[in-house]
Write a structure and sequence with these properties.
Strand order of the largest sheet: 22-5-4-3-23
Largest sheet: 5 strands, mixed
CATH architecture of the largest domain: 5 Propeller
Number of domains: 3
Strand content: 35-45%
CATH superfamily of the largest domain: Glycosyl hydrolase domain, family 43
Number of strands: 47
Shape: globular
Structural class: mainly beta
Radius of gyration: 29 Å
CATH class of the largest domain: Mainly Beta
């Protein structure tokens, strides 16, 4: 028998059912399946692009730590099940028989507008793998009552014990003045393929403001309806009722534990606990927030305990059994998934490469890694196994692995490589590099990356003695904590070391909430003190487009004067006052590079000339790259060299998105290095737009021609050799 079918038999055979009484209802009317639920299935979509408006799955053993299945790729193709080509807001339910699953989703693609959809998709499965589906178009089904609706959003399903039927509830907006989104319900047929009843109003906001994204759970004899209200004081509220169809009593207070906009409330009960999780999509921040409650009234944020290797949008969580979790893992896991899960001291885990055709595996390791002690461990579960065949010492050469999933076995040959790029372990971007005269060390100050929509909120610092081995010095500035005036979008820092009255001081400029701030410290690793307000928060006169981001600070070695440059879509520059925390407004200049300018200005000085660098294209593009111009002045006119490309992608090496750079000159030497970010290798180029916030930092050597122009840099995986300043 097929291993998956064996597992399915175990799953279906593992349930017992017990009646549970519900207040004010006949004992026989409410039958709730009881089973040993010990895992969790998260269903979700990921964004507003068509390839992101697809249903995805993730698993957790504890409701806190989730891992995506199928490489965070869709488990069902939206084009096969929907009328619009996309689906959003998936909700999953286990039926009363304990072995059937219903899933519903919004039939919609956001590219057509937020009031472009008129229906939903119903899906049914007996094993969580194979799904049948039916797309419903509400105006077609109910032309008299709902022929003029503008949108149908966020359907969900629940069993009604009084009617002994399954109810689908969803929000709809009718066309017409004074109309607003209300939550409706309809009962579905026994095959879960059609709505049997004309939708009726289930709930509406008493203050006649939109209410959407309903989620109903049953607890202590009452139904609890969580929903989002819009119009004023947007957020999540709750209403309760003794029966599904009401009457509903509104609890008129907001339940979200954040000041950021939220939507898509999802509530689930923790296994073997009386506590509940309320999670919601912080859609402008690009992340989820998880809260915990024992009474569904008071909620405590538990974000620090929650981890996800994906970035979900509006989804739901279903408790499942270990057998079901193992079945899903076995079905969706490939040998490459297990190999890519490798962990080991000295391993650059996000840069592991696997050639599935050649059955070859490459482990990138730190230059200091002792290969004789290098022993990766892998993440796998029941019905899976990984073992070495023959030699297991990487110090003696290649190692062969046998990977077994169910009845299928594959062998891979593994080798190690000691590349120096990326130089930082993890996802970082927009690197600023500094050599400190005070400490005689190098420092990199990057954007903390890997957050959907560039939504990071903190800055790290890294130090090195040789430009190859880097130490994480930790968080040096946290928005919302150290910076009172902004709590989002911590981007593209830069720093300058100044000697003032015989003492070294460090001025750290950063982008936050599309404004520019400044903080200072007596040490390159902080702690830093913020100015308490933005340094720059308005566009220069005459500039209408672009963003106030991507600042660069430069001190002219000829005059000792310091300058600040900034802008996305425009390049502005101004001299800083001696206090370094204000600009001389009369010096503000709009600089004019060529039309390739996008963002990321960086300025350096060499042999009497000022070199202005910038990034071309979009950071989500594989063609993101660096160009430059030359000037005789820190705020002067530009000369554009005939070939002004500094660094660009190298598809032959799988290197893409090379941009937003800084430059280091070794002290006292005409020796230069470019520090830049690229897409994460090797995964980035497969990630679509998400590659733009999954980036990593690299260093390569930069050289000049005899006429002073810059030689185009070839980006490498090898990177540079360690530098020794004492030589």
């Amino acid at each position: 028998m097929n291993i998956y079918k064996k597992l399915l038999c175990i799953i279906i055979g593992g349930f017992t059912f017990m009646p549970q009484m519900q207040a004010s209802q006949p004992k026989s009317s409410y039958l709730q399946p009881k089973y040993k639920s010990s895992a969790y299935l998260f269903v979700y979509f990921t964004g507003n692009r068509k390839d992101e408006e697809q249903i995805r799955f993730a698993l957790s053993e504890n409701g806190y730590n989730f891992k995506a299945l199928n490489h965070d790729q869709p488990i069902i193709k939206s084009a096969d099940i929907s009328l619009t080509g996309g689906v959003r807001d998936p909700h999953i339910l286990r039926c009363q028989d304990g072995k059937t699953f219903y899933m519903v989703a919004t039939d919609m693609t956001s590219e057509k507008g937020w009031s472009s959809n008129r229906g939903m998709v119903l899906l049914k499965s007996a094993d969580l793998i194979h799904w049948t589906s039916k797309a419903l178009h509400i105006p077609t089904l109910f032309p008299t009552e709902f022929g003029n609706i503008l949108r149908v959003w966020a359907p969900q399903t629940i069993y009604d014990p009084l009617e002994k039927k399954y109810m689908v509830y969803f929000s709809m907006l009718k066309e017409g003045a004074g109309e607003y989104d209300k939550i409706y319900y309809s009962y579905v047929n026994k095959d879960f393929t059609a709505l049997e009843t004309i939708p009726k109003q289930l709930f509406f906001s008493p203050d006649q403001k939109a209410c959407i994204d309903g989620d109903i759970v049953f607890n202590n004899g009452k139904y609890h309806l969580f929903f989002k209200t819009e119009g004023h004081g947007n957020g999540i509220k709750k209403a309760t009722a003794d029966k599904l169809t009401g009457e509903w009593t509104l609890k008129d207070n907001y339940l979200q534990q954040t000041t950021s906009p939220v939507e898509g409330a999802g509530v689930f009960k923790l296994n073997n606990s009386t506590d509940w999780i309320l999670m919601y999509d912080m859609y402008t921040s690009g992340r989820y927030q998880f809260t915990r409650s024992s009474d569904l009234e008071n909620f405590k944020v538990i974000d620090k305990e929650v981890t996800m290797d994906f970035h979900p949008r509006h989804g739901t969580v279903l408790p499942i059994t270990n057998e079901e979790a193992d079945y899903l893992k076995s079905y969706w896991t490939k040998p490459v998934d297990i190999l890519l899960s490798a962990k080991a001291e000295g391993l650059r885990s996000i840069n592991i490469t696997v050639d599935e055709n050649a059955k070859k595996l490459t482990f990138p390791v730190e230059s200091t890694t002792d290969l004789s002690k290098f022993s990766p461990v892998f993440d796998y579960s029941k019905n899976m196994n990984v073992k070495t065949i023959g030699n297991s010492d990487f110090g003696k050469g290649e190692v062969k692995y046998e990977v077994k999933i169910g009845l299928k076995t594959e062998q891979y040959t593994a080798t190690t490589v000691k590349n120096h790029n990326p130089v930082l372990n993890g996802l970082y971007a927009d690197p600023e590099i500094l050599y400190s005269e005070k400490t005689s060390k190098f420092y990199i100050y990057p954007t903390s990356d890997g957050f959907t929509g560039w939504s990071g909120t903190y800055f790290n610092c890294f130090s090195s003695d040789n430009l190859v081995n880097w130490k994480d010095e930790g968080i040096i500035l946290q928005l919302g904590k150290d910076v009172s005036w902004a709590n989002r979008n911590a981007w593209a820092p830069c720093i300058v070391e100044k000697k003032i009255n015989g003492l070294y001081k460090y001025f750290y400029y950063f982008s936050a909430a599309q404004k520019i701030g400044v903080a200072w410290s007596e040490n390159p690793t902080g702690p830093f003190t913020d100015l308490g307000k933005p340094l720059i928060d308005t566009k220069p006169e005459g500039v209408k487009n672009g963003q106030i981001i991507d600042q660069d600070v430069f001190t002219d070695p000829q005059t000792g004067k310091s300058y600040l440059y900034w802008g996305n879509g425009f390049m502005a520059g101004a001299e800083l006052n001696d206090d370094m925390v204000s600009i001389k407004k009369e010096t503000l200049t709009i600089l004019k590079p060529d039309r390739t300018f996008r963002e990321g200005t960086y300025v350096l000085f060499r042999n009497g000339k000022y070199y202005f660098m910038w990034s071309e294209d979009d950071t989500r593009s594989e063609n993101y790259r660096v160009r430059y111009a030359i000037s005789d002045s820190p705020l002067g006119q530009f000369i554009i060299p005939e070939n002004n490309l500094v660094i660009a992608k190298d598809p032959n090496e799988g290197i893409y998105g090379t941009g937003h750079n800084s430059v280091l000159q070794l002290p006292g030497k005409d020796e230069w290095y470019i520090v830049y970010h690229r897409f994460n290798y090797p995964k980035g180029i497969t990630m679509g737009g998400a590659a733009g916030y999954n980036r990593e930092v690299c260093i390569d050597k930069m050289e000049f021609n005899t006429d002073g122009t810059i030689k185009q840099v070839t980006p490498t995986h090898k990177g540079i050799d360690p530098v020794n300043l004492n030589k």
